[in-house]
Design a protein that fits this description.
The chain is an all-alpha fold. The chain has helices at 16-20, 25-42, 49-62, 67-82, 90-108, 112-117, 119-125, 130-142, 146-159, 164-176, 180-192, 196-205, 208-211, 217-230, 237-249, 253-267, 270-294, 299-323, 328-340, 344-352, 362-378, 382-398, 402-412, 421-436.
């Protein structure tokens, strides 16, 4: 197979910044048409594997971010391999090994784009080469083509399930993506397969701060036994709840969420398990952020994890306010989620919709007025914000101890535990007062 010719208008995208810039609508349409033409060749009888591979190769080179192109190329290559189309003699295998060596050299020189440009031709002649798949996965990661990276890792795991190198790179990929709990889940499955030699090779190659998170043999066996019990007919809901709690305690959130879905089908308690699933998703997102903060991960990754936390928090408290419309705590928490995601107008609408009774604790009013004032200030409604802050200042003056208010606010809005609510409120009031210079009485 000859390398795909670089005729696409997107071929000039030669570095990370340009790839990240995306493609125009016309370029996307051209790539989609090319891709569909490749699928058409596979529908022929017999399938035209080589023609389809040429098309998919061209799409891969034009857009390494398009994981679907890489997946179809590798899938088509696998089908042809199974048909005996890509068997090579020793001379060809020797030449092929030089192609793989060239990819390795390009990756060592951090020439990620060149490595991915040569990927289709090298893969064609090395359909199942572990080193090649892992190097290309690393190159895709370097270009932030994360979906493409996981496509290469998926096929590497399929072909080499007993390779410690494959599993080690998968675990590292999970950590680099901020998904430490998915790494735990990956090790859980390895432990359940009882291949201790492979497992020990993996554990020796990973840092202790990673391996300490992995589930122990006895924990895995306990989960497997409990799962076997709950999958039997007429298993009580309590058993499902126990399974979810145990998975949650081991930071196996993916499996816990899956167990909730199965429990919903088995018990029929749709509302309960739907709420439980969303709570697990929120705990998963918050756990990822907390863990990777302790790990001192990359700032961009932490920002992405924080954004995901806010997104799921908003979804969670929206459901809570729908299910419990009279629960003031959920209404305030939703308002602050909207503040956290900078949905200022929605936050103002949410805070204004909250009606507090005289018997409500004063911390409720403080949290409401602080969120309302910050949102008004953010959209430059300074007069409204000043009136809100005046009410807030009056409440603060009536408070006997700020420590009690801070503690109550942290219990009401969990992410307030990172700072003093009263100090934040006072700072907001003083800053706006200085900016507006209101007349003195």
């Amino acid at each position: 197979m000859e390398p795909a010719t670089p005729e696409s208008a997107s071929n000039q995208l030669s570095d990370v910044r340009k790839y990240a810039g995306g493609f125009s609508r016309q370029q996307r349409r051209e790539l989609q048409n090319e891709f569909e033409a490749g699928l058409h060749w596979l529908e022929q009888q017999p399938p035209e594997y080589d023609r389809a591979l040429r098309v998919f190769a061209k799409c891969m080179q034009a857009d390494p971010m398009g994981a679907v192109y890489t997946f179809e190329f590798l899938q088509t290559l696998e089908q042809g391999y199974e048909q005996g189309l890509y068997k090579h003699g020793w001379r060809q295998r020797r030449r092929n090994s030089k192609q793989v060596k060239r990819i390795v050299e390009l990756c060592e020189a951090q020439q990620w784009h060149d490595a991915l440009q040569q990927a289709p031709d090298t893969l064609y002649h090395n359909a199942r080469n572990q080193t090649l798949l892992l190097e290309l996965a690393f190159a895709a990661q370097a270009l932030d083509a994360i979906d493409t990276q996981w496509t290469y890792l998926e096929f590497a795991l399929k072909y080499f399930p007993s390779s410690s190198d494959v599993h080690i790179q998968i675990v590292h990929a999970y950590y680099q993506a901020g998904r430490y709990d998915d790494a735990n889940d990956h090790i859980f499955r390895l432990v359940s397969e009882k291949d201790d030699v492979l497992l020990q090779q993996i554990l020796r190659a990973l840092p202790g701060m990673i391996t300490v998170q992995f589930p122990a043999h006895e924990d895995v066996q306990q989960i497997l036994d409990l799962r076997e019990q709950v999958l039997q007919e007429d298993s009580p809901p309590e058993k499902w709840q126990e399974l979810c709690r145990n998975l949650e305690d081991l930071n196996l959130y993916g499996q816990a969420i899956e167990a909730c879905s199965l429990a919903q089908q088995a018990t029929g308690r749709a509302n309960y398990w739907s709420e439980r699933t969303l709570a697990l998703r929120l705990e998963q997102a918050e756990s990822r952020l907390s863990f990777h903060c302790e790990l001192q991960s990359d700032a961009a990754l932490l920002e992405d994890l924080q954004h995901e936390v806010w997104r799921i928090r908003t979804e969670y408290y929206q459901q809570q306010t729908t299910n419990f419309p009279n629960q003031i705590e959920s209404q305030l928490q939703l308002g602050w989620c909207l503040v956290g995601t900078h949905n200022w107008y929605e936050a103002i609408k949410q805070f204004n919709s909250i009606t507090l009774a005289p018997e409500n604790p004063s911390v409720f009013s403080i949290c409401k007025l602080l969120g309302l004032g910050e949102s008004q200030q953010a959209i430059r409604r300074f007069d409204d914000a000043w009136k809100t802050y005046q009410e807030l200042q009056k409440l603060l003056n009536e408070c006997e101890t700020t420590a009690t208010i801070d503690q109550q606010a942290a219990e009401l809005i969990p992410w307030f535990s990172e700072h003093s609510t009263c100090e934040r409120a006072q700072k907001r009031v003083q800053t706006l007062a200085k900016a507006m210079k209101p007349p003195t009485e």
